[in-house]
Amino acid sequence: MARINLLPWRETLKKEREKRFYIMAVITAIVTVGIIATVHMEIENQITYQNTRNQFLTQQIKSVEKEIAAIRTLEEEKSKLLNRMEVIQRLQKSRPEIVYLFEAIVTTMPDGVQLLKLNHEGNNIHIEGIAESNSRISSLMRNIDKSRWLQDPELIVIDADTKEYPNHSWFSLKVKRSHQE
């Protein structure tokens, strides 16, 4: 006898295909969710790693900024010390100048001239004094012109026969100090 299958084979085939389709769809969805989760976790790991690096760099920047601030204060202190050293060196160098200046003033003073006041500001020297005559003041100015340490005498005031100094001339003179080595 011949075998005849009376079951509806087309519907069975259709159901079997639908079942395989659903299984494949579920497997595809599971694989897709797995891939998405893996990619998401990898991106999260990279973000965490970058944040860790950023924190490290921020800490390093702060420590370098502290060092830079310390270096700046050291440079300022160094600058101040160098300025002080320069002032000290200038003072040391100019120490004998006052001696030479006083010697020049003494050697340029002719007889009959007395100093009353001597004021020194920078390179300018203001001299006030009395002289027995105007010719003595002229002699003083000529001596200053010849001096190695004094130069450019400029007579500011001359007042003859004052109440304070009878028979004398009171004078005010401005002189520049020359720098000789």
Q: In total, how many beta strands?
A: 4
> CA-to-CA gap between the ends?
144 Å
Number of helices: 2
Topology as a string of helices (H) and strands (E): HEEHEE
Structural overview:
Strands 1-2-4-3 form a four-stranded antiparallel beta sheet. The protein has two helices and four strands, in the order αββαββ. It is rod-shaped and about 170 Å long. The protein has helices at residues 9-108, 134-146; strands at residues 113-121, 124-131, 150-160, 169-177. It is 62% helix and 20% strand. The protein folds into two domains: 12-95; 109-177, Gyrase A, domain 2. The model has no long low-confidence stretch (mean pLDDT 88).
Please outline the helices and strands.
Elements: H1 9-108, E1 113-121, E2 124-131, H2 134-146, E3 150-160, E4 169-177
Antiparallel strand pairs: 1-2, 2-4, 3-4
Quick synopsis:
By secondary structure, the chain is α+β, with helices and mostly antiparallel strands. The chain contains two helices and four strands. A four-stranded antiparallel beta sheet has the order 1-2-4-3.
Could you name the key traits of this structure?
181 residues, alpha+beta, Gyrase A, domain 2, 2 domains, 4-stranded antiparallel β-sheet, 2 helices, 4 strands
